[in-house]
């Protein structure tokens, strides 16, 4: 007998399957400690130690069928689309914008009010087929417009799914504001992280269609695939620029056209976590007279360059090291090293 056999995850360490087929596609999975014993997904044979005979393909694994996406009833939008005098977020917006502008925002983004917490707001996620995917419930301060937090420092946030106790609801989120792609006159999409930022910036700069990922982790293919054919300008919160640039570069290799603004990242006046709406609200409210005046043309300026002219985080780190020891570039070239996403590490932007 031989000890318990386990498959080696590093399939490509073995160049050939015992059946003679090259293993460049990784279809032969060897056992730990063996180069010619394992299972070949190409020929369907199992090769066991100490036996010269081959065996039939093991019992096929049956995978569960993917579940369909669940949607909320659109009647919920009407049900909670009232009582805006008790909505802190809406009351804050009225201190900055006109009543007509705020009313337009409510209609555009289908904002809602709920009494989970006194003054709570609902941000609905409605996809490009007008299906209601998700309802995010958040509480803001009606004076500052900032998110309220508990004594323990946690934000007041939940979902309609949780409040309605829909335990078997199969949630698949989409971009906030995605339903607007079917009716907008804008020719470019501006992508931000927060729903609040998308709402506010749509008033300041209505020539863009403002959508939100809902979180920094929401900047990914699964969320953005519905807007692949659009020209997209991304405005990450301060501190997230390099992360978003790396992701945008990967997405652009798959056919997207995303440019990432570095303007906020370069503004040392603002702390980490600042978003574009914070900057423009400061401009209107003028909370600090010493702060420099903001021009959106200045914010947009760097977006005229291709994403290829923006260094990835790996390249930035490598260039800092190379400034102290240039031999690191020779090492990268000699071994054809790449970044974690498999992309070439350029020696400088002149290599583009």
TrEMBL record:
InterPro entries: DUF6371. Residues 87-238 form the DUF6371 domain. Pfam families: DUF6371 (PF19898). It comes from the Bacteria. This is DUF6371 domain-containing protein. It comes from Robiginitalea aurantiaca.
């Amino acid at each position: 007998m031989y000890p318990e056999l386990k498959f080696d995850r590093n399939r490509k360490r073995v160049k050939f399957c015992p059946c003679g087929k090259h293993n460049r596609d990784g279809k032969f999975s060897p056992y730990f400690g063996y180069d010619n014993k394992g299972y070949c997904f190409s020929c369907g044979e199992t090769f066991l130690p100490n036996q010269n005979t081959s065996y039939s393909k093991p019992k096929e694994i049956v995978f569960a069928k993917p579940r369909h996406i669940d949607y909320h009833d659109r009647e919920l939008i009407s049900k909670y689309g009232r009582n805006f005098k008790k909505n802190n977020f809406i009351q804050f917006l009225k201190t900055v914008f006109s009543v007509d502008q705020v009313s337009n925002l409510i209609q555009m983004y289908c904002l809602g009010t709920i009494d989970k917490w006194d003054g709570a707001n609902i941000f609905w996620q409605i996809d490009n087929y007008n299906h209601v995917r998700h309802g995010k419930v958040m509480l803001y301060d009606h004076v500052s417009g900032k998110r309220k937090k508990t004594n323990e420092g946690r934000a007041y946030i939940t979902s309609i799914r949780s409040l309605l106790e829909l335990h078997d609801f199969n949630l698949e989120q989409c971009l906030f504001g995605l339903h607007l792609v079917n009716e907008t006159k804008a020719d470019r999409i501006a992508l931000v992280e927060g729903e609040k930022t998308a709402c506010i910036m749509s008033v300041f700069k209505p020539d863009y269609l403002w959508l939100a990922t809902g979180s920094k982790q929401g900047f990914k293919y699964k969320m953005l695939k519905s807007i692949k054919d659009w020209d997209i300008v991304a405005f990450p919160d301060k501190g997230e620029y390099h992360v978003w640039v790396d992701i945008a570069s990967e997405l652009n290799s798959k056919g997207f056209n995303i440019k990432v603004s570095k303007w906020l990242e370069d503004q040392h006046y603002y702390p980490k976590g600042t978003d574009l709406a914070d900057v423009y609200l400061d401009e209107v409210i003028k909370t600090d007279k010493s702060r420099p005046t903001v021009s959106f043309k200045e914010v947009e300026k760097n977006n005229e360059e291709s994403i290829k002219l923006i260094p990835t985080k790996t390249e930035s780190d490598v260039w800092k090291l190379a400034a102290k020891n240039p031999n690191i570039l020779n090492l990268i070239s000699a071994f054809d090293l790449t970044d974690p996403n498999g992309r070439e590490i350029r020696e400088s932007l002149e290599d583009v």
